Amino acid sequence: MMRRLALALTVLMAVLVFGTLGYVLIEGWSVFDALYMTVITVGTVGYSEVGELTNVGRAFTMVLILLGFGVLLFALGTFIDFVVEGHLKGLWEGRRMRTNIERLSGHHIVAGIGRVGSVVARSLAEENVAFLVIESDPDSIERARDEGWLVLDADATDEETLLEAGIDRARGLVTALDTDADNLFVTFSARSLNSDLFIVARASHEVSEAKLRRAGADRVLTPNVIGGRRMAAMLMQPVVSDFLDLVTHGDSVEFRLQEVELPPDSSFVGRTIKEAQVRESTGAYILAIQQHGGAVNTNPSSNTVLEEHDRLVVLGTTTQIDALMQAL
């Protein structure tokens, strides 16, 4: 719409310049008189002519009327469309966004969708997880809307924005803004608004990690440090790195790692891994167990007793993990 409006204004200005130059050259009028004559001709207002027109001037006026009237209608129509459609679209988009946000509960919030945040949002979308994006950059907002993501056009460092995003009902937050200071402020504000929120913060520098944790972040990631470690691992242990890529974000296979919680009413509660026969009945492997509020057992034995609210890190295909979820 903006391009169409710019085109209409450009064409209208070109007609005005064309008419002004024509009257100056044909009738010898001053630039102001020629411009005045062009405007009243294009506008078809019917005011008296500046002076007596020659036959060539009359022919030029007829051409200018036909050309200018069409251009004027096009410009006016485009302007009306821009005002009416843009206003109505803005109202409709705003109302739809507020309605969708109000319906969200247990969702995730992604603050900032630059190089890191956009990957986070895309991963959440691929897993069909309910999430909301907070962004203020127009280009990023347009790309997010093209992806079909729910976008809040606002400043994530503003507490009112976080409240509008439903921070009090949210399950998790990823803050991936450009500066550590902004991420620190968002983390502190989010923690004060929702004590149960799981917060993952991005840090540009290692020295900021401790500050972000003190501000309330549950996890802090420094992309350049993680990237460097991954590159070193690929160099020294390429097979292990390939396997981790396969089970964490492989697009062509079903194998994946997933975290599942053991519900209180599960038949597995109070039984050992061997007694539950998880591998035999579902095909999935239990790689680690985090007991409720406790440490992570990274190599559980077959005699490990499963308790309610244990969080299991399991490895398997989509079918195997779905079978485990049903068994739980």
Give an overview in words.
The structure is a single chain. The chain has 328 residues and is α/β, with parallel strands linked by helices. It folds into three domains: 2-98, Helix Hairpins; 105-227, NAD(P)-binding Rossmann-like Domain (Rossmann fold, 3-Layer(aba) Sandwich); 237-327, Alpha-Beta Plaits. The chain is 55% helix and 13% strand. It has 13 helices and ten strands. Strands 3-2-1-4-5-6 form a six-stranded parallel beta sheet, with helices on both faces. A four-stranded antiparallel beta sheet has the order 7-10-8-9. Helix 1 (2-27) crosses helix 2 (31-42), helix 1 packs antiparallel against helix 3 and helix 9 crosses helix 10 (238-249). The two termini are 53 Å apart.
Task: Please report the number of helical segments.
Answer: 13
Strand content: 5-15%
Mean pLDDT: 85
- Topology order in helix (H) and strand (E) letters: HHHEHEHEHEHEHEHHEHHEEEH
Helix amount: 40-55%
- Main beta sheet, described? 6 strands, parallel
Shape: elongated
What Rg do the Cα atoms give? 32 Å
Which CATH class of the largest domain? Alpha Beta
**CATH architecture title of the largest domain:** 3-Layer(aba) Sandwich
Supply the helix-strand structural class.
alpha/beta
Count of the domains: 3
Q: What is the total tally of β strands?
A: 10
Which residues sit in consecutive blocks of at least 5 with pLDDT less than 50?
none
> What is the terminal separation in angstroms?
53 Å
How do the strands line up in the largest sheet? 3-2-1-4-5-6
Q: Could you give me the name of the CATH homologous superfamily of the largest domain?
A: NAD(P)-binding Rossmann-like Domain
Named CATH topology of the largest domain: Rossmann fold
